[in-house]
Amino acid sequence: MNLLKSASLILCMIVTGCSSNSEKPAEVAAVAPKIDAAWLDDYETRLREALKDSRFELERRDSVLVVTAPVDSSFNPDRPGMLLPVTLAPITRVAKLVEQDDKTAVIVLGHADSTGSDEINRTISRERAGAVAAIFRLSGLKHDRLRIRGLGSDMPRAANDSKEGRALNRRVEMVLAPQTTLLALLAEYNQPAPAATQVATAEAVK
Description:
Blueprint: H1 2-22, H2 37-50, E1 57-61, E2 64-70, H3 71-74, E3 75-76, E4 79-83, H4 85-99, E5 104-111, H5 118-138, E6 146-150, H6 163-169, E7 171-178, H7 182-189, H8 201-204
Parallel strand pairs: 5-6
Antiparallel strand pairs: 1-2, 2-7, 3-4, 5-7
């Protein structure tokens, strides 16, 4: 009888031990870094000064600051991936502002209207984002604080059923945020890189 009790006790201990070892520890939810309101206030003031007299727009969206360059007044209509000279000074001022603060990062987002195929839209929107990002690189901003995405027509500002709406959707956005939030922001905009495509000028002008 004692032998039977001992065997039962050992078996119980083995089963209990295996059960506890197989249980995975509870996952801890990732907490997004808290954005300092003082950072937003300070940067918004400095960005408005940098963008003074330009056609760019500045807005605060939740925890980021977004500078928007409308395509129609910022890019060469005959060479859709080339910035107009009038845009170079304000973009350079924004780039220098970011480069001088190693705690700030930027994501450059290219957008198109819905005219044409998804592949063409992604290609041209990425080219435009790349043209803007090139100025940030020339200003000294390193890769760990600079990312680009070509989103095509996936994130419109307006309906694409009018000329005015399509013009609003053709844009490049510079999203400024503390570097600690960069990875979380990138997750919102992750898109596969578009295939290399030769786009006729008539098709590429979105």
